[in-house]
Amino acid sequence: MKTKKRVFALLLTAMMVFAMSGMGFTADNTADGERYESITPLREQTSPEALIAALAALAALPVSNDTTQADIMAAVEGAITNPNLQAWWATSGIIFDLTPATRSTPGHIMGTIHLGFAPPTVDDVVIVNIPIPTFTPPIITTYNAPNGTIGDSYEFQFLATGSPVPTWHIVSGDLPSGLYLSGAGLLSGTPTTLGTFTFEVQATNILGTSWRTGTIEINFATGAAVNAPTVVGTPTTDSITVEATFAGANMGGQTIEFAVNTTSTTPTIGWQSSGTFAGLTPYTQYYFFARSAHNATHATGAASTGTAIRTYCQHDMSSTWTVRTAPTCTADGVEYRVCTICNGNEETRAIAALGHDLTGGAQTVIRHATCTVNGAVRTNCVRYAECGHYQINPTATYGHDMGAWSVTTSPTCTTAGVETRNCQVSGCDHVETRSIPALGHDFGAWTVTTAPTITTAGVETRTCTRCNTTETRAVAALSPNTYAVTQHFGTWSGTGTASATVNAPHANFVRLLLNGTAVAPANFTVTAGSTVITLNQAFLNTLSDGEYAFVAEFTSGTSQNINLTITSAESTPKTGAGTMILWIALSFSGMLGIAVMSKAKFAAKDPSRTI
C-alpha cells in the first residue's frame, strides 16, 4: 500500500514538473500517415534527458501489425546514451489485436516502460498506448509498362494501393535482360536483349497479394541519319569512290554502308561497307546512297538521297552556261560552259543582243483617256539607264463603265417596265435605258369548280398569282360506265320485299329508273355492298303481274337491266294498277325492251319525274 502511494505521488509530482517545464508530448509520423500518442509521459528530475530520448524514439518508431515488445524496447534502449541507465518493460501488460482474421481492425500496443539507474528503482515511467492503424490488402493500379529500346535507359514505376505499403516481386515469366524490379515496384535498367517479354508481377503486404500480367517489347534503337555521299577524288572510266558523314550524333557507334543504282530509286540490295565501286560503265551516270549499318543495338538507318555522279569522262559538258559578258540592248554578249566531270574543255558562244524591252519599263501618262477620247503614255526601255530608249503610244478610250441596271418602272403581267443605268466614270453623264418585258400571267394550278358528270361537262379555273386574273375551261363530261348486275330482283309472289345488287360504288348512286321514269325514293332503299337496292312491299303491290326491267343510274354510268317478275296467286288487279296498265304493258313490252337504255339516259333530263 505504501509502495502504491509512493508511486502515485511520484507520478503526480512528475506530471506537474513535466507540465511546468512545457514538455508535453504528441508525435506525428507524417510519412506513414499514422499518429502515435504517449498518454502519460512522466520524468524524474534526475534523468530528464533519458526520458526525452525515449519519447523521441517512440515517436519515430513505425508501428505495424508486426511490431512487438522487443521492437519497442530496442527503440527506447537505443536512444539512451547514459550507460548507467536502464530501460525495461513492465509485466503489467501488452495487448495485441493482431490475429490474421482481424488485421483490418486497428489494434493497440500498451504497456509501461521504466527508466532508471541499475539496479532498477521506481524512477521515470512512460505509460505507452500506441494505436495501430487500419490496414488493407494491396490492389495493383498501374502495371502497363511501356516498350523499351535496346541500349537506352529504362524506368517504370508499378503502383498499388494497400497498407502497409506492399512489396513487389516477379513471380513468373521473364523481365527483359538488363531490367530489374525493386521491392518498391520500380522497374529500371538498360535493356540488352531484343524480344517480347511476358511476366507476372506481384504486390504483397501482410493482408494479401495482387497479381497482374505485363508485356514489354524491346526493340532496336533507330539508326543514325547519314548525309548524302560525296565523290572522293576523280572518277575513272569504270570506278567511283564516295564517302559520307553522319547527319548528327552517332550514339550507337554505327558504321556507314553504301550502295549504287542506275536510277534515283533507293536500292534494296548490294549494300557494302566500302565506298569504292568498280566495274562501272564509262561515261554513265550512277546514283550513290549511304546509310548507317545495323549493329547489336541499333537498326539500319534510313537511306540518304542519291548523289548523281558520272564515270570519266569523254567530256560531259555542263548543261548550264555561265555568262562572261552580258549582252546589251544593241550588242551581243558571251557565255561559256565546262565539262561537269573534269571541269575542263571550255566552250563559248554568243548571246544575242537583247533588243529594247518596253514590256516592263516605267510608264508616264502624257494624256489621260476618257470614255470617248484616246490618251497617250510614254514607256521607257527596262534598261533605259543604259540605252536611253523610250516609246510613246496611244491608250484606248475607257468606254463607258456602266453601272448596274436600276428599275424605274416595274413591269406588270400585261405592260412592259423600264430600267436605266449610268456610266460610273467620274465626269461622264452617259445614261442608257431599256425596256423590261411584261411578266405575263403566272397562273396557278387548275381547280375544278364544277365537277363533270356523264351527261354534263364540268368547269375548272386558275388564277394569276400576281394580278388575280382568272381563266376558265371546260372539263369533258365523263364517259358512262355500264355496271354489272350481280343479283336481280328476281320473282316476287306477293309478300315481302325484293332486292338486287349492282357492282357499282354505292356513293355514286343517283336514282332508280323503271321504263325511263324515276322511281320515287320512298319506294326503295339503297345500301352499300356494292350497291344493294331493295323495293318495298307497298311499291311492289302497285305492280301487276308480269316482267319489269329497272335501271340504276350513277354519277359515273348506269347498270345493266335489273329484272323483276311479278306473279300473284290473286286474280284481282293490284291497287293502282288497272286493266288498262296491264294492256299497255303487254302492248309495248317489246318496244320497252329495245329502248330501255335510251329512256334511262333521257330520263336524266327530267329528274322530278317519278312513279
3D structure, described in words:
There is one protein chain. It contains 6 helices and 43 strands. With 611 residues, it is mostly beta strands. The chain is flat, with a radius of gyration of 62 Å.
pLDDT < 50 runs, ≥5 residues:
1-46, 91-105, 571-605
Cα(first) to Cα(last) distance is 145 Å
Q: What's the count of strands?
A: 43
Largest sheet: 7 strands, mixed
Shape: flat
Q: Cα-atom Rg, whole angstroms?
A: 62 Å
Secondary structure: elements and pairs:
Blueprint: H1 2-20, E1 27-29, E2 34-41, H2 48-60, H3 69-79, E3 85-89, E4 108-117, E5 124-131, E6 136-142, E7 148-149, E8 154-157, E9 159-163, E10 167-173, E11 179-181, E12 186-189, E13 195-205, E14 208-219, E15 230-231, E16 240-243, E17 256-261, E18 276-277, E19 285-292, E20 307-310, E21 322-325, E22 333-337, E23 347-351, E24 363-367, E25 375-380, H4 384-387, E26 390-395, E27 406-409, E28 417-422, E29 431-436, E30 447-450, E31 458-463, E32 470-475, E33 481-483, E34 485-487, E35 490-492, E36 498-502, E37 509-514, E38 517-518, E39 524-528, E40 531-535, H5 537-540, E41 546-554, E42 557-559, E43 562-566, H6 579-603
